[in-house]
Amino acid sequence: MMDKINIAYLITAYHNYGHLEKLIRALQDTNVYFYIHIDKNSEMPTNLNQFTNIKFIKRHKVWWAGWSHQKAIFNLMAAAVKDNYDYYALLSGSDYPIRSNEFLYNKLQQGGEFISIKEGFPSDLKRGWITNFYFDLFYRRKPNKPIWIKILLRLEKKISLYFPKKNFPFKKVFFGPTWWILTHSTVRYILDFLNSNRHYERFFKNSFCCEEILIPTIIGNSGITNIKGNLTYVDWSVHPGPAFVSKKHLAIFENDFVQNEYGDNVAFFARKFDKESEALLDFIDLNFRA
To answer: What is the model's pTM?
Structure first.
């Protein structure tokens, strides 16, 4: 019998800590460890003290779609890579596995980088994510925005109009979903590359949703091979997305092969779940993970 793959789960979270606890329980095993960043805008969880394989890393404030989320991801990678795991799985606190843990172990035993990337800009809109200027100071989806946020949004447009970013620091751009599972060598490569190429961080620091561009672009220009697609199901059929997992998704999860959002691999995780999802999680545990 082969030894189990050692996995570091890297989790960014900010609320719904009851679900976070269920996520950790579902993935719990002797070969795993959890590194967690809790948004400094939020209270720390008080329901995870019973777990001995969790490390909370230093916190900072995270704003949706801003560099601050990418910074949290890099800090999680840097904290975990010191302990030398076989794989590093990036999750949000709203994810949940829809297959048994053995399904994931078998996948990882086959080797490869489980990240979905595609060359080029998917649209002119997403090209603007990196050529335009964005502040990382507030929640952009906030309704009834106060005047100071409205002023900053107008200023963003002026800066983007007169000072667009034109000199890309990379040969080719690649896009992909935020969530991935990568080998130790690839995580080490990404961190070393950024340390040696500080202009990448300067270029992306005022971008939008850079976690869907920066790491895919580093990997896409690196010569790293054996890329197999990520293992996360996401439903983007609603706006603004993604959709929360509901009863209708259970019919999808019944299939032997649940596609990820790019259709280039099958899913082990699904997202997003909320605090009302407890009955769904119980059904998934009993019918799809047992």
So the answer is: 0.96
